Automatic annotation (TrEMBL):
Organism whose genome encodes this protein: Diaphorobacter ruginosibacter
Transmembrane stretches, start-end: none
Subunit architecture: Homodimer.
Protein name, UniProt field: Histidine--tRNA ligase
Compartments where located: Cytoplasm
Gene: hisS
Listed CDD domains: HisRS-like_core
Length: 431
């Protein structure tokens, strides 16, 4: 009989294991705390959505819809479904479906996995994770600025450095229409200089040609008509307000007239936070205003603005910069010389856990608890700040020995098991 084939994860869809998962939990906790301070509320949408949601919301000629979505037909009812490649469309669908804007605007955030079928590379995977913030129902430029300040505050909170904010404005549909005509005319005059991808997009999505990474086309796109030159008074005023608020808060930014974002639903303010430390995958957070998406998915017209960051890229950049993310280690490690005392010991450990102390208990090997030396060795390897020694003599006195593992002196004291509530707080890392 042949051995059963070993099953492994799908390429580009990675397991996140301890201790690496502790870095993710740390980032997620930072996000939750910051979102609360900005009064954004958590929202969770399904991983699978109707394919039509993304075709309608993202645009049929975007790379995501054309090449990257994981789409399939439901065998039970024939529905066309897709693993979400991004979350904004799903958030908008839920807001519309549940009439969430009936009583006014909403500030929302999400965290979770997204899926795109593309070549895995550093910071870019087939299953990747996004954190996003969306403000729906607010037309003012101050909310655009608020969201940028929110992202910038997160970088400060987690100690992320060397991140540059780039801004642009895409104006309104009529302004983009006028620019589109001028852009197509310009590109038609230079069609011989276009690569295959640009020629394919020439009439379907010419704005995306400006975002090409092809070095041979850089001079061409640099000389192309700029959308910013087609903006009217209202669009310019909106953009000026965003810039003024950022300036007043000491947030540095640069103007990038070629910044267009990847989805069709953006208008007015668009922005990206970029770095040069992750190679070609330099964008770690991007977003902007999308005032027409809510109507596009079947809701009443309403303004909206938001951003999303790539969790993998943020964590990779932190690692690249040598930032020390706190490791998750237990507060105490319980050393138990005699297996016969386990019922009494575990009862004490449960009281400690109820008091908020993180406890790792030594377990038997099936042939006893092991020597004190081996238990102390495991206590040290666990990273715990304290070892609790439940020796026979201590237990007979209704006590436990608390031994420091991290002060270099090995100080110890004896504490009463009946008074756990009075001394448990001294064991906590946060205490």
């Amino acid at each position: 009989m042949s051995k059963t084939q070993k099953l492994v994860a799908i390429k580009g869809m990675n397991d996140i294991l301890p201790p690496e998962s502790a870095r993710w939990e740390w980032l997620e906790e930072k996000v939750r705390n910051l979102m609360e301070r900005f009064a954004y509320r958590n929202m969770r949408t399904p991983i699978v959505e109707p394919t039509a949601l993304f075709v309608r919301g993202l645009g049929e000629v975007t790379d995501i819809v054309e090449k990257e979505m994981y789409s399939f037909e439901d065998k039970l009812n024939g529905e066309h479904l897709t693993l979400r490649p991004e979350a904004t469309a799903g958030v908008v669908r839920a807001v519309v479906e549940h009439t969430m804007l009936y009583e006014g605007g909403k500030r929302l955030y999400y965290m979770g996995p997204m899926f795109r079928h593309e070549k895995p590379q550093r910071g870019r995977y087939r299953q990747f994770h996004q954190v996003g913030a969306e403000a729906l129902g607010f037309p003012g430029a101050e909310v655009d600025a608020e969201l940028i300040l929110l992202a910038n505050s997160l970088w400060e909170e987690i100690g992320l450095q060397n991140v540059e904010l780039q801004l642009n404005s895409l104006g309104q549909p009529e302004e983009r229409k006028a620019h589109r005509s001028a852009l197509i005319a310009y590109l038609e005059q230079n069609v011989d200089a276009l690569d295959e991808d640009a020629r394919r997009r020439l009439y379907s999505n010419p704005l995306r040609i400006l975002d090409t990474k092809n070095p041979a086309m850089q001079d061409l796109v640099n000389a192309a008509p700029r959308l910013f030159d087609f903006l009217g008074e209202a669009s310019l005023k909106h953009f000026d307000t965003v810039k003024a608020i950022l300036d007043a808060n000491g947030v540095k930014w640069t103007m990038n007239p070629r910044l267009v974002r990847g989805m069709d639903y953006y208008n007015l303010t668009v922005f990206e936070f970029v770095t040069t430390q992750l190679g070609s995958q330099g964008t770690i957070c991007g977003g902007g205003r999308y005032d027409y998406l809510i109507e596009e998915v079947g809701g009443k017209p309403a303004p909206a603005v938001g951003w999303a960051l790539g969790a993998e890229r943020v964590l990779e950049l932190l690692k690249e910069q040598g930032s020390q993310v706190p490791a998750l280690v237990p507060d105490v490690y319980a050393i138990v010389p005699d297996a016969g005392s386990l019922p009494q010991v575990i009862a004490a450990l449960q009281k400690l856990r109820a008091a908020g102390v993180s406890v790792q208990m030594h377990t038997s090997s099936g042939e006893g608890m092991g020597s004190m030396k081996s238990q102390f060795k495991k206590a040290d390897a666990s990273g715990a700040r304290f070892a609790l020694v439940f020796g026979a003599d201590e237990l007979a006195r209704g006590a436990v020995t608390v031994k420091s593992m991290r002060d270099g002196e090995g100080r110890q004291s004896e504490q009463s098991l009946d008074a756990i509530g009075t001394w448990a707080g001294t064991l906590k890392i946060s205490g």
